[in-house]
Predict the structure.
Amino acid sequence: MVSGRLVELDTLRYTPARVAVLKFRLQHDSSQTEAGGARKVSCEIAAVAFEREAKLLAASKLGSNVKVTGFLAARSRSSRTLMLHATEIEFGEGE
């Protein structure tokens, strides 16, 4: 699971098989322990959601806080860049 703030939401679209899909970017900021010391972590994560989660995100606002559960996979057959595939989306308080 990774948490963050929605910083980019593409337009909801549909595959030829009529499956809802939405690409988005998440800004993650946290403090982690590494080698016995604290380390600040800040990164943007490219992600994609399908069906229920895609529709939930399409109705949300930029800046919303979310927790995303999912898995990492290559962006495409020709790219080895990682993309988070969201299988569950939880919105933060007041979102």
